[in-house]
Here is the input.
Amino acid sequence: MSKKLPKSIPLGVALIPIIFLLVGLITLIAVKGSGAVNEWSAPILLSAAALSVAISVACYHRPWRAILLGMIKSFRQIIPSFPVLLLIGAVSATWMLSGTVPMLIEWGLEILNPTLFLFITCAVCSIISVLTGSSWTTIATIGVAFMGIGTVIGYSPGWIAGAIISGAYFGDKVSPLSDTTVLASSSTGVRLFTHIRYLMITSVPAMLIALTVFLIAGFTADHVGRTDTLEMENALHATFNLTPWLLIVPAITITAIAIRFNTCIVLAISAMTGLAAIFIFQPQVVAAFIDMGHSNFTAAAHIFLTDTALATGHPLLDDLVATGGMKGMLPTVELVAAAMVFGGALMGSGMLTSITSAFTRKLDGPRSVVTATVGSGLFLNSCTADQYLSIIIGGNLYKKIYNRNRLESKLLSRSLEDSISVTSVLIPWNSCGVTQSAVLGVATLTYLPYCIFNFLSPLMSLTMAWTGFRIRRLHLHHAKNKSGLHN
Here is the structure.
């Protein structure tokens, strides 16, 4: 008896798990509100993954080996983020309890003009992210401090997180040290600085508009009075020993980044430095753990691993200095793992191939090609839940299409960055969206409308394509030569 060959999955059927996911999330938001997305996204993602596997195996004879290979491919891309997520929890805890973040909050309250706060936050986060090449590190350190400052001043969490994320992702996008920037250029065969220069055409206008919006928002928002901020500063001084020596903690972190250690090592060094600062500069915090029956060793383990609360006498400050440690990041790890299973199921079942081929079947000219690239980028970000995997798939998917249409490879690399790298943080179940929501303590759907730069980037890419600005066709013989190199 001959073995049944797997049948190709029609587009309408391939979209069923995606529709199931979207309907489930929309229903969840309608019934329980946007705050429930992080809590219930994992079961919905796993259910959608099970549905895609069931359809592909039972109805289209997809072999289990193919499903497993899809899972493995997704696993390889996302698993490196797990230790990073846990270490971010440790960094957040040690930077807070060491007094580093409280000191930055106090300085910010004294120095920053409340009206210019959002503008300055976005600008500073962009500069730090350019220097570090990492939006995640920027948000987990200085971003947390800005979150505290903005909360005290009286801005809504959405506006503060939007300014932090806009700046951090702009800097990450145009930094030669950024892994996503390097990946987008290398996967499309474009020189790194050629890619970055071409990115500036869409990124700089998007960032200027974002800064203008944050500036206007600062002038129109209500702020708390100086008396209220003085109460917070007094509570900070009563709880922590605030000294400029605490700047050693971020200084060592920046040095580790400059040496080009990988992300895990940088975060581990930063967490250990923050822990040492707790024992050196905050003996009263250590004493509180000793009073609870901890030794120095178990106190250190408690800070790293689980949640910690301090009674400051100020309700707002109590919320700001409470830390979750690695335990606080476990729901994030769980959601990223569920997204990994969903992305692997779509790839292994062949449904992702069916959907992406529909995007690219009849493309002709820069307008339709770039529009399809941007749409595919957003779609891949939603399906794979990982920006790295989305960039790789998008690059492989569109290389020949850009060559066939005699379009430059740098247009492809820019379109991928504009639609993938900066929008990943806007998707509640994407690893970036989940992480930044957990670190900043703001739901993804709460900060999404205020991430001005992030949602302007794909729109700017489409605008340049439809106006034809700085987009040119390659000569026919040049395109043929490139085709020979790709084959």
User: Anything to note?
Assistant: The CA atoms of residues 236 and 312 lie 8 Å apart. The two ends are 38 Å apart (CA to CA).
